[in-house]
Amino acid sequence: MKNILVTGGAGFIGSNFINHILKERDDYFIVNLDKLTYAGNLENLKESENNPNYVFIKGDILNNELVNYIFEKYKIKYVINFAAESHVDRSILGAEVFYRTNVIGTNVLLETARRFEVERFLQVSTDEVYGSLGPTGLFTESTPISPNSPYSSSKAAADLMVQAYYHTYGMPVLITRCSNNYGPFQFPEKLIPLMIINTLNNKKLPVYGDGLNVRDWIYVIDHNKAVDLVLEKGKVGEVYNIGATNEMRNIDIIKLILKYLNKGEELIEYVKDRPGHDRRYAIDSSKIQNELGWKPEFSFESAIQFTIDWYLKNQSWWERIISGDYIKYYNEQYQNK
Ligand code: NAD
Ligand code: TDX
Q1: Probe ligand 1: pick from 6, 12, 19, max atoms within 8 Å of CB?
Q2: Digit-coded pLDDT (tens) for 99-134
Q3: Annotation marks residue 26 as catalytic
Q4: Are 76 and 122 in contact (CB under 8 A)?
Q5: Which burial class, exposed, middle or buried, applies to 57 when counting CB atoms under 10 A from its CB (0-12, 13-18, 19+)?
Q6: Buried b (16+ CB within 10 A) or exposed e, 158-172
Q7: Is the pLDDT reported for residue 197 higher than 80?
Q8: Which of 79, 106, 210, 330 is most solvent-facing, going by the fewest CB within 10 Å?
Q9: Are 124 and 81 in contact (CB under 8 A)?
Q10: 83 Cβ inside 6 Å of ligand 1
């Protein structure tokens, strides 16, 4: 049995990881440490909560004593660090918590993992650490780090720290850098779920700037399969880019959602641009494909339809979210645009 600490497992990607992996494998015992911030939601884990190979602990990765207790009690040998403040717009409204969780929190995990001599420590990073691309070219693992938002700078800081622990202490670390994810359980502050839910509610669809910014989209299960593979087979000290070669302009995604839901384009509203808005992300994932044999399995055409249908079928999941603190955030983020 492999005892794995998964942090941030009640969020979008982490919960999909746990639900998927517990179905696929019986050799993992997963301890999920999550603070349950606004983004953490135990409803995402209903199908896993009674699994004998799973335990949930509510707590903060910044809590040294708690983290130490978990490593000791559960004899943790593997760590996957998904826990983070993850939304760029929120980092622009208030950056401090991003540096606390994403940088210092990662340091607490690294230090503890070092003391307990873990076998693998996987840091879940993002393509945003590379900054922004012009109209051509792709991010490779050797593209220099050049983050532009408080969020991406906090993720880049964590990456550099993880690499320093490899070089200084010989810690068996791995870093994955994935492009934009979509799928079930994504918090509706992010582009795709926000646009689906606003469309269903006949609310305006706020497009930042000219709507021509490009993101490279990957279905969350493809990302998680890659994370699992890197944990098992990745070479320590290395970075692996993850992406599905699916670049799209924001406005085209929004139009696709409108069309699928049979709504008109009059809902689209161009608003003030995001400050420092990165123009284009695009991932070269040939390293993980050639060295570890990973490749994306889901086509965008079918997985985006599945995702929209999921939000249609799971209205009570997102209605509970958008009736709470979300209203305050939404008004602050979008009121003066
Ligand atoms: P999310 O915001 O949906 O979930 C984050 C989770 O972390 C939540 O459950 C939250 O409660 C938990 N958390 C936050 N602070 C914590 C703390 N101090 N202690 C313990 N738990 C804490 O984020 P996500 O979209 O699932 O992203 C997961 C990871 O993947 C992040 O590290 C993010 O940077 C990275 N990533 C995300 C994307 C994407 O498109 N969403 C792409 C590439 C990389
Ligand atoms: O209301 C909106 N209007 C809009 O035009 C929102 C929320 C977004 N956008 C644009 C901004 C981006 O160009 O859509 C694009 C995608 O925005 P987000 O969903 O906020 O994602 P992004 O900023 O690209 O960052 C995401 O991908 C990398 C995740 O949030 C990060 O956690 C991940 O690291």
Answers
A1: 12
A2: 999 999 999 999 999 999 999 999 999 999 999 999
A3: no
A4: no
A5: middle
A6: bbebbbebbeeeebb
A7: yes
A8: 210
A9: yes
A10: yes
